[in-house]
Design brief:
By secondary structure, this protein is an alpha+beta fold. It folds into 3 domains: 234 residues; 115 residues, Jelly Rolls (Sandwich); 166 residues, Alpha-Beta Plaits (2-Layer Sandwich). The chain is built from 16 helices and 15 strands. The strands form 3 sheets. Strands 3-2-4-9-6-7 form a 6-stranded antiparallel β-sheet. Strand 12 and strand 13 form a beta hairpin. Helix 6 packs parallel to helix 8. The longest helix is centred in the middle third of the chain and has 40 residues. It is rod-shaped, with a radius of gyration of 44 Å. The relative contact order is 0.06. The C terminus is likely disordered. One of its GO terms (biological process) is negative regulation of bacterial-type flagellum-dependent cell motility. This is Diguanylate cyclase (GGDEF) domain-containing protein. InterPro entries: Diguanylate_Cyclase, GGDEF_dom, Nucleotide_cyclase, Rev_trsase/Diguanyl_cyclase. GO terms for molecular function: diguanylate cyclase activity.
């Protein structure tokens, strides 16, 4: 529990620190004119430029209305007259190579104007503008194998070099604030997944989803390029994540919906899996399958998620609390993903980045529900475990108790004696035992009957129990014989206790004061490493026998020379 609390606190502090850092970046003052090149733009095909055809206007930053088989296009506009110092253009490209021309001079080139394996990836570019270029004509020559990305650069910013770098980081603030939050949720889920009470499949599915979501957000950032300038790697990772996210999300949904709706969700999972397999295969075959397949992905996304939402709604209506919790992130993330798809391929609206990272907070609803439910489940299991332990303890105690006298039986003595021997194996007299026997108990049974005899036994045990400590173990050895184990007790101390018990029994009437009894007691102590349980019990039994043999109602202790003592004892018996 302490480790869980420490990990939770560390993850929370990490998220708060990262969030504060990126808020500070967001609040940094902007300098320069920060102009968007959103004035009048024109376009023309490669063949049209060579033929001298007139340029055609279009609504920038939308992509130009080229034919579906067109792979190269020219764009042009005029730079403003007032240019910032150290002016540069911030251009973001996706799956296309391009050249930037200022008048008749090419000032920037990215990629080759021809097909490339796995396309050209996603990348930002800072293009420096020579001094004195105000009012000059700016042209962009672009190549792409997909008409959805050909000539589309989103917003192109004109500003100073330093401001452009700050803009890159500012555009990443939504991602970089939500990445620590997603990591925090991932850590929480991994912590709770270690609990024996956790539903492993659901937790593992959600952990996989959160992991891929974090990877996707990292790939969507601009600042990743400072860490690793590998456009193809980032493009492949991001597009793979885009296909995996709905697939893993529906696997999570499959885990929470009721059994009657699992078949419907299973079909959505299968469709996403088949689409992923086909597009990745087409990509490695050189058909740019992952980029082309995204059109189909974002077309199927709202339809398939409507089916998943129906299954969740029906399950929630029937009282499924997990389904209610997962419906919130599903609505937000499916909606944001659909809008991002429209922005990518239809360009009906233009935003800096994606909407999907803003839905990270909707996942908190599901994570909070899981944590709350997990805590309740763990408490229930802890209470159940405590109850079971109590039942087991009672069962063990019952198995080691004598019903008549409420003393322990031989089973308990074997356990306690073995523990004491193990703990004090090499010591001498760390514990002692006393064996008691009621004198002439057969006479009590013969005179008053066995029922009265049982009450006398129970009364005798009660007298002994009230005159020893709770830590001392009282055992009914059999019939009218009892054994007491005294921890940390020497033989001398055991002798004094035995004498006190003998006197107490003698002076205490039993059976409503009608019967008085006496008892004989034998005392023996542990002798160390050379001793054994069998020898100890034999010695205390012989000591009791000696007490009975020499007149009863007395205490005898094992002598120092046991062999000499018992030899004389048995010799006396033989002579008699």
């Amino acid at each position: 529990m302490q480790l869980k609390s420490a990990l939770k606190g560390t993850a929370l502090l990490l998220w708060l620190a990262c969030s504060l850092f990126f808020v500070c970046i967001l609040l940094l003052p902007m300098r320069g004119i920060a102009a968007e090149l959103a004035g009048q733009w024109f376009w023309q095909t490669e063949e049209g430029v060579e033929a001298g055809e007139p340029w055609r206007p279009f609504d920038f930053p939308q992509n130009p209305p080229v034919e579906s088989d067109t792979q190269q296009v020219w764009l042009k506009t005029n730079l403003p007259q007032d240019m910032p110092r150290d002016a540069s253009l911030l251009i973001q490209s996706r799956d296309q190579a391009f050249e930037v021309w200022l008048g008749d001079s090419c000032i920037y080139t990215y990629g080759e104007m021809r097909p490339a394996f796995m396309s050209y990836g996603q990348r930002w570019h800072i293009v420096s503008i020579p001094d004195g270029s105000g009012g000059r004509e700016l042209r962009i020559h672009a190549y792409s194998a997909s008409d959805a990305t050909l000539g589309y650069f989103g917003q192109i910013w004109l500003d100073g070099n330093v401001e452009q770098v700050l803009r890159i980081f500012r555009q990443d603030v939504p991602y970089l604030m939500n990445i620590p939050l997603a990591v925090f949720m991932l850590v929480m889920m991994m912590i709770y997944a270690t609990s024996p009470a956790a539903p492993k499949r659901l937790y593992n599915s959600f952990i996989a989803f959160i992991t891929v979501f974090i990877i996707w957000m990292i790939c969507a950032t601009n600042s990743k390029q400072y860490v690793l300038d590998a456009p193809l790697f980032w493009r492949f990772s991001m597009q793979m994540s885009e296909y995996l996210l709905p697939l893993l999300a529906n696997i999570v949904i499959f885990q929470v919906v009721d059994r009657s709706y699992k078949k419907m969700v299973r079909w959505t999972v299968l469709i996403y899996a088949v689409l992923l397999f086909i597009t990745v295969g087409a990509e490695f075959l050189g058909f740019n399958g992952m980029s082309r397949g995204r059109v189909l992905l974002y077309t199927c996304l709202p339809l398939l998620e409507m089916a998943a939402l129906y299954a969740i709604a029906r399950s929630a209506h029937q009282g499924n609390m997990y389904a209610r919790a997962v419906s919130v992130p599903l609505l937000f993330m499916a909606g944001a993903g659909t809008l991002d798809g429209i922005s990518l391929y239809r360009h009906w609206y233009v935003v800096d980045g994606y909407l999907l990272p803003y839905t990270t907070f909707s996942l908190c609803v599901f994570v909070a529900f899981i944590m709350r439910h997990q805590i309740k489940r763990e408490r229930m299991l802890m209470n159940r475990e405590a109850g079971l332990k109590q039942e087991v303890s009672q069962a063990i105690e019952k198995a080691t108790m004598d019903n008549l006298t409420k003393c322990y039986n031989r089973n308990k003595l074997e356990i306690v004696l073995a523990t004491e021997i193990l703990q004090h194996k090499n010591e001498e007299e760390p514990f002692s035992v006393i064996m008691l026997d009621i004198d002439f108990f057969k006479t009590v049974n013969d005179t008053y009957g066995h029922e009265v005899g049982d009450e006398v036994l129970a009364g005798f045990a009660e007298v002994i129990r009230h005159n020893i400590k709770k830590k001392d173990v009282l055992v009914r050895w059999g019939g009218e014989e009892f054994i007491i184990l005294f921890r940390h007790c020497t033989g001398e101390e055991a002798m004094m206790i035995a004498e006190r018990l003998r006197q107490k029994v003698e002076s205490t009437p039993l059976y409503d004061g009608k019967i008085r009894i006496t008892c004989s007691l034998g005392v023996a102590s542990w002798h160390g490493a050379d001793d054994s349980e069998t020898q100890l019990l034999k010695r205390v039994d012989d000591a009791l026998y000696m007490a009975k043999r020499t007149g009863r109602n007395r205490v005898c202790r094992e002598p120092k020379s046991n062999l000499h003592w018992f030899k004389n004892l048995y010799s006396d018996e033989e002579t008699e």
